[in-house]
Specification:
Helices cover 30% and strands 13% of the residues. A four-stranded mixed sheet has the order 4-3-5-6, with helices on both faces. Strands 1-2 form a two-stranded antiparallel ribbon.
């Protein structure tokens, strides 16, 4: 690779951050001291001239042919994409099911993988102290997985927690993420110089459906304007027409 400022951090700043297309997946955070994730945003702390360009290689919104899924024929052109089987499921554990968003399947899969020693830890997304400011978190027990159950309808920078875990030598990792984060993981595996070696530590990947994510700072302001106070335990955006009055968001 060429050792230039532009093809690394500067390119990511100009092509992604300055254009406002960052999806806040967290893939560029935790790799080096130059990026951080603060208050729902990726923040540039210092300029970088490293020649590895990992931040640019990982980013799902950056144009980088060497790690592009298009180049590696990993992107199916059909709307649904490739699949082996399609199931409708829910956890048979009532506690896991109740704590989950719609049946607790992601939590149940992680717990099962942990009990079978497929994974030793998992990167998940907690809801923050107020229930509205999610962030990535490394958990090591089924109870910690359950504590992080439920959907977060806001960007969370979850992959920053994965980068920290990998840098600290964590082995046997599971992860739950959004499509942009799953794309970043695929790009990580194709990255140089050590992407495949690092991604071998990730044993289970669970991707969730997503069409958009809220900016939790704006959501917090929205609730404050409507005098909705107190920590949020759970919130939901049910599909229109599936339940009576399902026209927007519901908070508990």
């Amino acid at each position: 690779m060429k050792n230039t400022d532009y093809e690394g951090q500067q390119a990511l700043i100009e092509k992604v951050l300055d254009r406002g297309i960052c999806v806040k997946c967290g893939a560029c955070v935790g790799l080096c001291p130059h990026f951080s994730y603060w208050d729902g945003q990726v923040v540039v702390l210092d300029r970088c001239s490293a020649g590895t360009w990992r931040c640019l290689q990982y980013c799902p919104r950056a144009e980088y042919p060497e790690t592009s899924l298009e180049r590696h024929d990993a992107q199916d052109k059909e709307a649904l994409g490739p699949f082996r089987e399609i199931w409708a499921a829910r956890s048979t554990d009532h506690h896991v099911c109740d704590q989950g968003q719609y049946g607790g399947v992601a939590s149940a899969l992680l717990i099962s993988a942990m009990k079978k020693n497929i994974i030793a830890s998992a990167v998940v997304t907690d809801s923050g102290s107020d229930g509205l400011s999610p962030a990535g978190r490394l958990v090591r027990t089924p109870s910690e997985i359950i504590a992080c159950s439920g959907s977060r309808y806001a960007s969370a920078g979850t992959l920053a927690a994965l980068n920290r875990a990998v840098n600290e030598g964590e082995e046997g990792i599971g992860i739950v993420g959004l499509p942009c984060q799953m794309e970043a993981l695929a790009r990580m595996e194709r990255s140089e110089p050590d992407g495949r070696e690092k991604m071998e530590r990730v044993k289970v990947k669970i991707g969730l459906f997503c069409t958009w994510a809220l900016d939790y700072r704006m959501l917090r302001a929205f609730l404050a304007e409507r005098q909705i106070k107190g920590p949020v335990k759970k919130y939901d955006i049910p599909p229109r027409g599936t339940r009576p009055g399902a026209e927007g968001m519901r908070f508990v």
